[in-house]
Specification:
With 448 residues, this protein is mainly alpha-helical. The longest helix has 29 residues. Helix 16 runs antiparallel to helix 17, helix 18 runs antiparallel to helix 19 and helix 19 runs antiparallel to helix 20. It is built from 23 helices and no strands.
Amino acid sequence: MKNCAVKSSALVLLVLMFALVAPINEEGQFGLSPVYAAEEKSEKKQKTRRVPSLSESVYKKLGEGQEAIDAKDYNLAQEIIQGALDRSRRYNENEIANLHNMLGYIYYLKDDYNGAIREYKIVVNQGEKIPEGLEVTTLYTLAQLSYVQENYDDALYYMEVWITKATNPSSAPRFFLATVYYQMKDYDKAVEQMELGVQIAQERNTTITEQNWSLLTFLYFEKEDWTNVIRVLKILVEEFPKREHWIRLAGVYGQEGFEKEQLYTLEAAYTADFLEKQTDFTNLAGLLMQEEVPYRAAKVLEDGLNRKAVERDAKNLQSLGQAWQLAQEVDKAIPVFEEAAGLADDGKIYERLSYLYLESDQYDKCVDSATGALDKGGLRKDQSVYIVKGMCLFNQNKLTPARTAFVSCRRVARQDKDTANQRICGQWITFIDRESKRQAQLAAASGE
């Protein structure tokens, strides 16, 4: 069962999860992003490069640029750094990288992602002549910016290079790669990266977010790998119990023919008060009816109606009435059917009511319901309703109208070539004629 809501919510949340981070550290200096900083701290020994030093004049320009950024005067900051780059003196690779890194950050702050990407590419092109921290931070940022710009090939390239250079990378880049492969519709590789990220997170006892699991579920949906869809959804309902996860799990169980599991899942969700929508209640009630637990089904539907989650229309009221009837709660079924019959477009519910009234010896109401059924129409067999009406009239000793009902029954049965009911109605007419004659003779005898 593919669910569009699952797909869209997973994508939005994952984009937010990998929101861009400014390539400046907590001390306000250009350097490590939060992701890389955490990774670097996990290793006490960090290999360092011998890189050209920054001249005092470049350091000063970077400081001026930072002050303008702090003041949110991005145009001035760009003017300062671009002016330094336009100078004729020759800079070493480290100076070039730092100036272009700040300029890239300025473009990023101005929402000019193409400009930012262009500058950051110049930074990483300086190769071994810049600090490792600056290189890996810029690679990570390039991967993210490329993703935002929907340049997925570049996003993959820069993230894969980053992984080879980062110290002991966490699960986050794997989850990021999974989103990129998802956008490229390479679901096999997306799943591979997601599962690798999950494995890393579990080994390190770090957090796997609800969004991570949701994306993995979605990917298995796309691959129609229902065994793994169920496995991941079971994790979601345990760790992030929400209606959407319970309902999806129940839906997949139903789709795959695991109706018992589907019922147990919906029952658990109902007990935990996660059911909200009409389909939640009606699906659970339907499964309970299937399992021949009509009383429980009636209680679930009644609860849904009372909460106004289930619409009080003819269809839902009829289902409730049927549940009460099968649960041998006829006194509760009748008023529900009466309400449903008034709302229905045809006479089928009135027909059902007429049978109930006949069984409970409420003959006046039986006649009224049968008449209502015939007036509204849309019945499977009108002759069946005429039979019920005739029987109720006969039980009231209203022989003439009863005979009229059976005559109508025989006429309709003839039209439908329904020989069985034609015979039954003919027998009733004969029986009523004899009874009328018998009663007339008794009356005449008593008069003598």
